[in-house]
Amino acid sequence: xxKRSGFTMVELSIVIGIIGLIAxxxxxGRSMFEAAExxxxxxxxxxxxxxxxxxxxxxxAIPGDMNNAExxxxxxxxxxxxxxxxxxxxxxxxxxxxxIIGDWTNTATATAGSEYEWFRAWQHLxxxxxxxxxxxxxxxxxxxxxxxxxxxxxxxxGKGGWTLLYMASDGSTDTxxxxxxxxxxxxxxxxxxxxxxxxxxxxxxxxMKSIDEKLDDGLPFTGKLRVKKNTATSCTVSxxxxxxxxxxxxxxxxxxxFLMGV
Length: 262
What we know:
The protein has helices at about 10-60, 70-75, 115-125, 205-215; strands at about 105, 110, 160-165, 185-190, 225, 255-260. The chain is α+β, with helices and mostly antiparallel strands. The chain has a 4-stranded antiparallel sheet with strand order 3-4-6-5. Strands 1-2 form a two-stranded antiparallel sheet. β1 and β2 (about 110) form a beta hairpin. The termini are far apart.
């Protein structure tokens, strides 16, 4: 009797068909996951922007910068520089009252010590019951360190969190954040970064472009939704203002910046 070896054409066709279905399922699953992430990020930007404006309307002050916050929510310890702790709380500290949440210029705070307002901002918004969660109101191991879910909100995507601060205009010297002069309160979405705000890129160029097209002009360095310039090597085709997203890259190379316009 002759021993049969290998696969028949019918069997090979079945195997190839099964592999094709698995591959298609993976692609569809990834697409659905990114679509859900896009919706989550777009929703969070809308919530935080609206909450910011509602706070200003209600209190006639900027969250974090509010100079009479303690009269509403009591005083935290050793204001304004309360020691690092891991206790979400209502007691808070007043801000400087100059109309901005700290001020960051390119790679350093323009006003020394103002970064504490970044974390009081989320605490003030929470105390005003305009956003979910409760926050410590203080920096992490350094005065500029965001701790996702503790002093800044975690994203529903499960991949990052949000920092809210004022970006002062650097003009032509700004090599880190923007291609052109910008002065605006900015929402920054990214992963945990030791000693800094939510500054780790967490999206692919394709994903970032889909969010940009949904909320803005679809370009990385113009409009209100942008990519952080010095993290864009694998995110954009070039560093030119007219550049597009590098859609051939699958790297988690893009960090999202949303200019609130206020």
